[in-house]
Every structure is written in structure tokens, then in C-alpha cells.
Amino acid sequence: MASIAFKIGDFKATVISDGYGQIPIKPVFVMNASDAEIAPVLKANFLQPVVQVTNNVLVVDTGRERILVDSGFGEKLGPAFGSFPGLEANLVRAGITPESIDLVVMSHGHLDHIGGLVTKAGALAFPKAQFVFVDTEWNYWTGSRFESEVNTSPMPDGFKKGTISAARENLPPVASRARFVKQNGEITTGVHYISAPGHSPSHATILFVSGNEQFMHMGDIAHHPVTSLQRPNWSPIFDYDPAQAIKSRKAILDRVATEQTMVMGYHFPFPGLGHVVRQDNAYRWEAAQWVW
User: Fold this and answer.
1) Threshold 0.70, pTM exceeds
2) Residue 97: Cβ within 10 Å count
3) 222: which DSSP letter?
4) Cβ distance 51 to 75 under 8 Å?
5) How many CB atoms neighbour CB 68 within 10 A?
6) Residue 183: helix, strand or coil by DSSP?
């Protein structure tokens, strides 16, 4: 299944798959724990050392605007990263044309989120859309520091190269159509950025509110329902500032658990929808139940 539809109050929402690939839990999802620490957690959760990872792309129709949150890898994924069939094909299968997207809202500037903004030929993938970024996140990825900092980060070499090329090639073409919002600012009616820095300099989650219902797109605050929730102190290899990312992760997880907010994990098993529940000194994932 490439898409699944649900409601956020009066908003109509759809999760679209950008595909999947195989990822080793260590060091990609966990770089600051030993094999001896990781092994019993994997065993208790029936996980193998290599797991399938997805990109879950959210579309929300508010009745006023059709909003896409993040854009997947696009055509910037090398074959070594796995099998990603492409967001556009799955959007069309769900009855959503790229031309129908009014706003593309970005959680942050990493390759697997901005890669689908522009086609390989250089055209805008969502030709009628406005592109929304946290202002300081845009400034970072269009500035002079990011290239050297990515190159000295612990990311895999392929991801370093892809991250740099995505920022260089995909952001300038959308600049004239970009709109910048402050951290915690309103994107449009019923849609707000929630500050959650650390994974990237100004990473943000996106909160949707309609009537009495709330829904949070968690961006990359949590990469996996086991490693990120059961062990929120474990850091993935992609975190820009691991200590700040842990602080943000705990704050967001605490908030959505306290408020019992339905959330989406961008990289959680498709469709990545469910609730975060407190368990001991950490959290557990309760996937949403569906009537098929």
C-alpha cells in the first residue's frame, strides 16, 4: 500500500510512501551505545541489526490549501541506499497531482526531506506551490558553513555528498517561491512550527490543529519507534548537535505523550501514525489501529 487517508478534525490527511530501504541500526540509528547495550533491546523488540526504513510524506488538505510536508529523496538517492519508487508516482496513485499542492512545508534541510523539491532536469516538482522554511534553517543550508560541517560530520560519505548536492541544487530554484517563518511561528491557519533543534540547526516539528483535534508531524525528532522512544538518549548518526537533539526529542515526546496527540514518524514503519506513551523513564510506540 502506497498511501493511507485519515482525518485531523475537519482536515483531510494522507500519508504517502516515498519508498523504503535497509538501514543498519548501528551506527545509523544509534552511534553512542555499545553492541552489548543495543543487543538486548533489539532482542526484546524482535528486531534484526538491519531494519527497513521508510520515508512517510504527509499531505493535508485544510479546505483552503493542500499542504505537503517534506518531499522525500526525489531523484537524488543512490542505488546503494535501497529501493525508493518515488513520491510522485505514489501521489498520483492517491489521486494527488503535484500541480495541486499549494504549500510545501519543510521540517529541515536534509537530503531525504528536500531531495524531492526539484526534478533531475531542474524543474520544480510542485510547480504551483509556495515553499515554507524556518528562516534560520534556510539561512544555514544556503550559507557558507554547511558544506565544511557536513564533510566533517560522522554521516556516511554517500549521505554527505547527497546532502551537500541537495542543498546546492534544490534550494536556489525554490528561493523565489520561498516563504520564511520564525521558529514556533504560524505557517498558515491551523498549522504551526514547533521548535525542535539539534537534529539540524533549526529542525522543527509541524503541529496541525482543527477543531478539538491536534496532530504532530515529528519530522526527524525520532527516527525509529524502538531506538528513539525506548532509548531517547541514543543518538542517530545524522544529528547535528546530539546533546541538543536529545533535549528536543525528550521535550517533544513528553509533550505528545502528555497531550495524547496523534503523531507521525517520518521514518517509522509505514504509515508511521500512532501515539507516544510513557513507559518507565522513557516511551513506547502504539501504532494507530486501522479498519481496512
Assistant:
1) yes
2) 13
3) -
4) no
5) 28
6) coil
